[in-house]
Design a protein that fits this description.
Layout lengths: L7 H8 L20 E2 L2 H6 L2 E3 H5 L4 H14 L2 E5 L5 H15 L3 H5 L10 E3 L14 E8 L16 H27 L3 H7 L5 E8 L11 E4 L5 E6 L6 E5 L2 E4 L7 E5 L1 H6 L9 E3 L7 E8 L6 E2 L3 H6 L9 E2 H9 L7 H4 L4
Parallel strand pairs: 1-10, 2-3
Antiparallel strand pairs: 3-11, 4-5, 5-6, 6-13, 7-12, 8-11, 8-13, 9-10, 9-12, 14-15
Helix pairs in contact: 4-7, 5-7
The chain binds N-oxalylglycine and nickel (II) ion (NI).
The site of N-oxalylglycine (OGA) has 11 residues, from strand 6, strand 12 and strand 13.
Length: about 350
C-alpha cells in the first residue's frame, strides 16, 4: 500500500549538520512558489466557533448559522469552549511527545506493515520517483473500540493508552455534537447524516515533523484534503505549521492554545452535495524545532454508501454533484494514491 522510505527523524540527524543537504527526494520546487499570508490578522480571520454558545439555547441559533457559514466559506474553523478537560489534552500532549522522543528501536516496535496504514511509519508513497514529506506518522484506529489493534498502541509511556482512550471518547463526543448542528444547518434529519457515521468510526494520525535546516525547501505534509467527514486537529507542542488554501493563497494558521482546528473532509463535502467545502491544506516545518500535531478523523462506516444526502439532492432540483461510493472503496482509492490537493474529491464530481 505504501513503499518503504527512510525514517525522517533519523534522517534529520545527519541532514541538519552544517555540511549536509536535504536529499533531492525531499526538495519541493513548488514550496516557495505561492504567496503565504502570515500574521495575527490571518488567524483572526479564520472563523472561531464556540461550542458552549452552540449548546446554549439563547445563542444556539446564531452560532449554528456561523458554523454553517464557516463550513461553506472556509471549510475550516477554530473551535473554542469545546468542553474537553484541560488534563485530557495535556495528558495526550505529554504522552505523544514522549513517544516520539523514545529511541528508534522502541518506536520501530510499532512499525506499520506495508499493506495497511495502521502503525508508525510513512504513508502515501506509491512510486520510487515521488517526492517525499519531511515527517513520520503514527496512525491508529480508535473507534469503534472493536477495531482497535493494541499491537500498534504504544505501551510507553505507560499512561499512553489511557490518555488516548480519554482523548478518543472526548473528541468523538465533540464531533457528534458538531455533526448534529451541521444537519440542522443543512436542514436535514440528523439521523440521515448520523447514519453514514454510525458507530462513530474514528482514526488518529499523529504527525511528527523533525526540524529541517532547509525548512523552506521541504513540505511536512503535502497539499491534500482529508478524506473523512470531520477532522479535529490539535497542536501538540505549540509549534505551528498548518497552512490552508483560501482564494488561491496559503494562509498560515496560528491556532489558539487548547483550541481545535476543525475541518470539513471529502466525505462531508460529498454528503452535503457541495454545500460544505473540503479545503486543501498542507504543513510546513520549522528550521530548529520539532513539531507534533494530532489529527482525529471522523470516518464514515465501512459499508456505508457515501454520496449526496437524498434530501439535499431533492432540494437541489434532483441533481447530485458527486457519484456515490461504498466508503471502504473510497478509502482504498484514497490510500492508493499520493496526496494530491483536491484530486480525491474532484474525481467523484459528476
Ligand atoms: C493531517 C493534517 C496538518 C498539520 O494530518 O491531515 O492536515 O498541521 N495535518 O499537521
Ligand atoms: Ni489533513
Amino acid at each position: 500500500m505504501s513503499l518503504l522510505v527512510p525514517n525522517v527523524q533519523e534522517l534529520a540527524q545527519t541532514c541538519n549538520r552544517p555540511d549536509q543537504q536535504v536529499p533531492d527526494r525531499y526538495v519541493r520546487p513548488e514550496a516557495g512558489a505561492d504567496e503565504v499570508i502570515v500574521g495575527h490578522g490571518v488567524s483572526a480571520a479564520i472563523p472561531v466557533i464556540d461550542l458552549a454558545k452552540l449548546l446554549h439555547p439563547e445563542s444556539s441559533k446564531e452560532e449554528c448559522a456561523k458554523l454553517g457559514s464557516a463550513c461553506q466559506q472556509w471549510g475550516f474553523f477554530q473551535l473554542i469552549n469545546h468542553g474537553v478537560p484541560d488534563d485530557v489534552i495535556s495528558d495526550v500532549r505529554r504522552d505523544l511527545t514522549e513517544f516520539f522522543s523514545l529511541p528508534m528501536e522502541a518506536k520501530e516496535a510499532y512499525a506499520k506493515s506495508p499493506d495497511d496504514y495502521e502503525g508508525y511509519g510513512q504513508h502515501f508513497v506509491v512510486s520510487e520517483k515521488q517526492k517525499l514529506d519531511w515527517g513520520d506518522l503514527l496512525h491508529l484506529r480508535l473507534r469503534p473500540v472493536e477495531s482497535r489493534d493494541m499491537r500498534f498502541w504504544p505501551a510507553h509511556p505507560p499512561s499512553f493508552r489511557n490518555s488516548m482512550e480519554m482523548y478518543s471518547s472526548e473528541t468523538a463526543r465533540v464531533a457528534r455534537c458538531l455533526m448534529e448542528f451541521l444537519a440542522m444547518d443543512m436542514g436535514v434529519d440528523p439521523e440521515s447524516l448520523m447514519e453514514i457515521f454510525r458507530g462513530q468510526p474514528q482514526t488518529l494520525r499523529v504527525n511528527y515533523y523533525p526540524p529541517c535546516r532547509q525548512a523552506g525547501k521541504v513540505f511536512g505534509l503535502s497539499p491534500h484534503c482529508d478524506a473523512a467527514g470531520l477532522t479535529l486537529l490539535l497542536q501538540v507542542n505549540g509549534v505551528q505549521g498548518l497552512q490552508i488554501r483560501k482564494d488561491g493563497r496559503w494562509l498560515a494558521v496560528d491556532a489558539p492554545d487548547g483550541a481545535f482546528v476543525v475541518n470539513v473532509g471529502d466525505t462531508l463535502e460529498i454528503a452535503s452535495n457541495g454545500r460544505y467545502r473540503s479545503i486543501e491544506h498542507r504543513a510546513v516545518v520549522h528550521p530548529e524545532k520539532e513539531r507534533i500535531s494530532a489529527a482525529v478523523f471522523h470516518q464514515a462506516c465501512r459499508n456505508a454508501t457515501v454520496g449526496p444526502l437524498p434530501e439535499l439532492v431533492t432540494k437541489d432540483g434532483g441533481r447530485p454533484v458527486y457519484r456515490s461510493m461504498v466508503y471502504e472503496d473510497f478509502m482504498k482509492r484514497f490510500f492508493s494514491a499520493k496526496l494530491d490537493g483536491r484530486a480525491n474529491v474532484e474525481g467523484l464530481r459528476i
